[in-house]
Design brief:
Elements: E1 3-4, E2 7-8, H1 24-29, E3 35-39, E4 49-57, E5 61-71, E6 73-78, E7 81-86, E8 93-96, E9 104-113, E10 120-129, E11 135-138, E12 144-146, E13 168-173, E14 197-198, E15 202-210, H2 212-215, E16 218-223, E17 229-233, E18 239-245, E19 252-257, E20 272-278, E21 281-286, E22 291-295, E23 305-309, E24 320-325, E25 332-336, E26 347-348, E27 377-382, E28 389-396, E29 402-404, E30 410-414, E31 429-434, E32 461-464, E33 468-473, H3 481-484, E34 487-491, E35 496-505, E36 508-518, E37 524-529, E38 535-539, E39 546-553, H4 568-581, H5 590-600, H6 609-620, H7 628-633, H8 637-650, H9 657-669, H10 676-693, H11 698-708, H12 717-729, H13 735-744, H14 755-758, H15 764-773, H16 778-787, H17 796-809, H18 818-831, H19 835-840, H20 869-874, H21 884-893, H22 896-899, E40 901-902, E41 905-906, H23 922-930, E42 943-947, E43 952-960, E44 963-967, E45 976-979, E46 983-988, H24 1004-1015, H25 1023-1026
Helix pairs in contact: 4-6, 6-8, 8-10, 9-10, 9-11, 10-12, 12-16, 13-16, 13-17, 21-24
Length: 1028
């Protein structure tokens, strides 16, 4: 999520593609055809009817193709499980429901309703059985019907409907007027047909479908006064009051505009990615904008004015995010992603931050976040009266939301950089406990800190690839205690709401994740627990079809409020952490500072990472002259390491900085440690001292080499990583040979456990599965990244082994930036070779690391035409006839593959399209192929730079060191560097870099095959697209 005035994401549009089973419309017309049926009395035209059909299977169902629709709305259950719902007669439910069927009796239950005009319901189900004949179920007037809601749980498998006395009549046959074949023409309205699945004893209900033309695509949600909800469009449609209503047919909502304009404009206040109702106001954190306080000027409860709060603007989808009420009820926590400028703060709980990278960082190979430096994503605390902010913590990538559990501890769901997958600097999406003074270690490019760095903090649990959006605590939910204590974390890409079950452990937490709600596509954006105890969530974002859902508990367990008591040892550790946090960034007298040091110092040796971190930050917050001598005299190994890191981090700003470096370095060289984690801390302390207080002189270098050179290789791989990093920095004469041996004699890579996650997204999951099946040697790539900096100490044999490894590792599967990173490692290593070495290695150093098709790409046949939206949509309805190989060939022949990777192949200027089947529908895709500038994600938005001498330059824009660097869309072009004073203006472009008319050279079959290929996720065996 990215845009800032002088830092814009990559130069491309986001082509978005997903198609439903449009070919099922053809299947519904195959004989035998289902009847359209309705209440024979004609008295149910404006209220629901209830239908049941039972049938027997003699064997296991291998597939079960369902086609059903109603004029106007329908919900369908199979054996008690909701499998589909639709609110548009032109948008049928089309699914394979084999998993819901079992040998023996099976039951279809239906709630159908008409809203005036012709009324009708139709259903066709074709079941293929293992070793038995196919079974076809059709709607007809013999089905059981009740004109009133039945008693009991009427949707269950064994419900007896024999007493239902309603009569049905046939009102048509599939294909008859006035309905024709619903879904065949792929109408223009964006509708929600996904039926989210959830765990046992819970149910998901559709509350409201958002009309996109009037209300946009909702990405933020909060509870408001009077049991209302408030939601906001990502674009310019505004924010909306939501009143949830209950009815016989289920929940619905009354939605009205907020009707407040942005100050000084006639445009509605819109684009919030953080909303909060608190202190008699709506706090509105605008994405790419400011924080606003929205109030009722007349005190009548009608919001009518917006006041801009002192804050910063910018950052796009990586910009301003959540706002929540603080645990003490006296402030507001605000979150911003790694492109959000930090506002002026009156107190910094993180006193000092730098990049703190011992070796030269390599920026992302595709240009993402070039020039972006610490602090990265942040959390601040706002005083709602003075409107002053204090900095709480830093170092996230892009944490969209934050939430508090029942003990008042804060958590977030931080984003990964999916292009990094397969590399040692890849950090999966993860749940983090958000604590005062924390630095969570995001640094751009290869600079991400490992979780074992003593000056960072580990996550509660790692999830894997994904796109984190909302998080909300289960506090207040009418759920069993297990789920009241859960954190619900939303993943937009994989269409999943996770329940994160956390266990307090000391001053921190451990946790595990459970997929709680899933769907495909289900681009979940935000969630709240409302006053009725239900979990409400929105889907939408980036112009997609949007809706409001809710989750209710349907089981028989207790939903009483969970016990709010912590185990005594945990409560004690938490109380100590909170006490130590009071010292973070506080303005104290000398007496108070020394008392704070006495209080914090014993916890520098704690085995609890969170207590130790709280103590270190408390110490860092005091003047170094009060405690520097104490560090040098410290005898406890862990306390010394922690204190030395604190002194290295802040000593340069102290009154004694000139004398610190030799004293601290000498103490570090002679320090004793008793375990690997302390050794890792010692290596980090040496590195920080070198970076912050001054590089070692020759004598110090020799002493450090004497201490650490003999440790390599070590039995602990993390220690090896840090030893290699330090020894390359120190120019060890032996590190090249030793590290090459580690590379050559490597163990198989450690494969992350993402198989189940990947299975939830047939598109993007395919990319993940390929990486798992052909995973790079990540650890050794990290060694190679470090060795690329080393000019001396090589033999030609070691050089050859090094480049042979790079060539081999580059054949593995990784994220979008992986080939570029491998190429850049090779090129930078070559630049550090002697001329004679480059000559000797030229047979190894010319390989192309970009993945290329290993199949024939045929020329476009044509003849083409200027495709209109309606004509193109008409070709998205016959995918059973599509040719996978031809669609794949067209993808590359039509130059889609020049900029976009799909199924592991293609360029990397634009987004990877493999994941689109889980995000977007076919109408959205075709619309944005024909009009690529309609919606441009700011991650792929170009900027136009106007120079002082009148020139204009377009490309990815990055600001660093008083210069502006523009990376043209042509990845082979050299970046353009301009001094800031030579820049007149930087403006985001509203024109996509993708030209119009790219499909105009295709004939009808080629267009059909291309769309089918995109919607299949690159999988020729995708039965939903290609049938059998």
């Amino acid at each position: 999520m990215i845009y800032r005035h002088l830092s814009i994401g990559l130069l491309f549009f986001c082509v978005a593609v997903f198609g439903r089973l449009s070919s099922a419309a053809d299947f519904s017309m195959e004989k035998p055809r289902a009847d359209w049926i309705w209440d024979a009395t004609g008295t149910s035209s404006n209220k629901p009817i209830y239908l049941q059909k039972q049938f027997n299977l003699t064997a296991k169902a291998t597939s079960a193709s369902l086609f059903t629709v109603c004029d106007n709305t329908v919900k369908v259950w199979v054996n008690g499980k909701l499998v589909g719902q639709s609110s548009e007669w032109s948008s049928p439910i089309q699914q394979d429901i084999a998993k819901q069927l079992s040998p023996g009796v099976n039951t279809i239950a239906v709630q159908a309703a008409n809203q005036g005009g012709p009324a009708g319901f139709t259903l066709k189900l074709v079941v293929k059985q293992q070793g038995a004949e196919d079974l076809i179920i059709l709607s007809d007037k013999q089905w059981k019907m009740s004109p009133t809601q039945p008693q009991g749980v009427w949707t269950e498998k064994n419900y007896d409907a024999s007493k239902w006395t309603g009569r049905l009549s046939k009102v048509g046959t599939m294909g008859d007027a006035p309905w024709g074949v619903p879904g065949k023409q792929g109408g223009s309205k964006s509708v929600i047909n996904t039926v989210p699945q959830t765990v046992d004893d819970f149910a998901v209900e559709l509350v409201y479908e958002v009309p996109k033309d009037q209300e946009g695509s909702w990405v933020s949600l909060t509870t408001g006064p009077g049991r209302k909800l408030i939601a906001c469009d990502q674009g310019g449609k505004g924010a909306f009051w939501i009143q949830v209503n209950e009815s016989e047919t289920g929940p619905n909502a009354t939605v009205t505009p907020l009707a407040v304009n942005r100050p000084g404009t006639n445009s509605p206040l819109s684009g919030a990615q953080g909303l909060l109702w608190a202190y008699d106001a709506l706090w509105f954190h605008q994405n790419g904008g400011h924080l606003y306080r929205v109030t009722a000027s007349n005190g009548d409860g009608i919001l009518d004015q917006a006041e801009q709060v002192p804050s910063q603007r910018g950052g796009g989808e990586h910009g301003n995010h959540a706002v929540i009420k603080t645990e003490d009820g006296q402030g507001i926590y605000m979150a911003g992603g790694n492109h959000a400028p930090l506002a002026d703060v009156t107190r910094r709980r993180v006193r000092s931050w730098e990049e703190d990278l011992l070796l030269t960082r390599m920026w992302d190979a595709n240009g993402h976040a070039r020039g972006k430096l610490a602090p990265g994503g942040w959390v601040t605390r706002l005083n709602p009266e003075t409107l002053e902010q204090e900095l709480v913590c830093i170092g996230f990538r892009n944490q969209y939301d934050i939430s508090l559990n029942r003990f008042g501890d804060m958590f977030t769901y931080d984003a990964d950089m999916e292009w990094d997958m397969g590399s040692p600097w890849y950090r999966p999406t993860r749940i983090c406990q958000v604590v005062s003074g924390g630095d969570y270690g995001w640094r751009s490019g290869t600079g991400k800190w490992p979780t074992y760095f003593e000056d960072s903090l580990p996550p509660v649990v790692e999830i894997g690839p994904g796109s984190p959006t909302g998080v909300v605590s289960g506090v207040g939910a009418a759920f069993p205690a297990k789920y009241q204590d859960a954190l619900f974390a939303l993943d937009w890409t994989f269409g999943t709401i996770y329940a994160i079950h956390m266990t307090p452990e000391g001053a921190g937490y451990t946790g595990r994740s459970e997929p709680f709600v899933t769907g495909a596509p289900l681009p979940v954006t935000d969630a709240v627990v409302a006053q009725d105890g239900l979990l409400y969530f929105t889907v939408g974002g980036r112009g997609t079809a949007s809706a409001l859902y809710r989750v209710r508990y349907t089981g028989n367990g207790s939903t009483s409020a969970a016990d709010s008591q912590l185990p005594p040892a945990v409560a004690k550790a938490r109380a100590v952490r909170k006490r130590l946090e009071n010292y973070h960034g506080a303005s104290l007298s000398e007496k108070e500072s020394k008392a704070a040091l006495d209080d914090a110092w014993p916890y520098l040796s704690s085995e609890d990472r969170f207590l130790r971190a709280a103590a270190r930050v408390a110490v860092e917050s005091q003047p170094a002259q009060y405690w520097a001598d104490r560090v040098l005299k410290e005898q406890d190994p862990q306390a010394f390491v922690t204190a030395a890191i604190a002194l290295a981090r802040v000593g340069a700003d102290s009154e004694i900085n000139l004398s610190l470096q030799p004293l601290l370095m000498d103490a570090l060289v002679n320090a004793k440690v008793i375990n690997d984690f302390q050794l890792l801390g010692l290596l980090r302390a040496v590195s920080l001292t070198s970076m912050r207080l001054g590089a070692p002189d020759r004598e110090q270098r020799n002493t450090l080499l004497k201490r650490f050179d003999t440790m390599l290789p070590h039995t602990n791989p993390d220690v090896n990583t840090e030893l290699v990093r330090l020894l390359v920095y120190l120019r060890s004469p032996t590190v090249a040979a030793k590290t090459v041996q580690l590379i050559v004699n490597r163990d198989p890579p450690v494969i992350p456990d993402w198989t189940e996650l990947a299975g939830r997204n047939a598109g993007y999951g395919g990319t993940v599965k390929r990486i798992l099946a052909n995973h790079p040697p990540s650890r050794e790539i990290g060694y190679a990244l470090a060795l690329r900096n080393l000019r001396t100490g090589w033999t030609i044999e070691d050089r050859r082994a090094f480049f042979e490894f790079l060539n081999e590792a580059a054949k593995a599967s990784g994220g979008s930036s992986f080939p570029g990173f491998m190429r850049n490692i090779r090129d930078e290593a070559l630049a550090n070779c002697l001329d004679s070495e480059r000559v000797a290695l030229q047979d190894l150093t010319g390989e192309n690391y970009d993945p290329v098709p290993d199949f024939e790409v045929k020329k476009i046949v044509g003849p083409g035409r200027e495709w209109t939206l309606a004509e193109a949509r008409s070709k998205a309805t016959r995918f059973k006839e599509a040719n996978f190989r031809n669609g794949r060939s067209v993808y590359f022949a039509a130059n889609c593959g020049k900029c976009h990777r799909h199924n592991g192949l293609g360029g990397n200027v634009g987004p990877d399209l493999t994941s689109i089947p889980n995000k977007f529908d076919v109408n959205y895709v075709i619309d944005h192929i024909i009009d690529p500038s309609k919606v441009i994600s700011d991650q792929y938005q170009a900027s136009t730079v106007l120079t002082a001498d009148g020139r204009t330059v377009s490309g990815l824009v990055s600001e660093a060191d008083e210069t502006l660097v523009i990376y043209p869309s042509d990845t082979k072009a050299e970046p353009i560097t301009l001094a800031i004073e030579d820049v007149e203006a930087v403006r985001p472009s509203d024109v996509s870099q993708m030209p119009k008319g790219l499909i105009d050279g295709l004939n009808a079959e080629e267009l059909r095959d291309l769309l089918a290929y995109l919607m299949s996720g690159g999988n020729g065996e995708n039965k939903k697209i290609y049938g059998n």
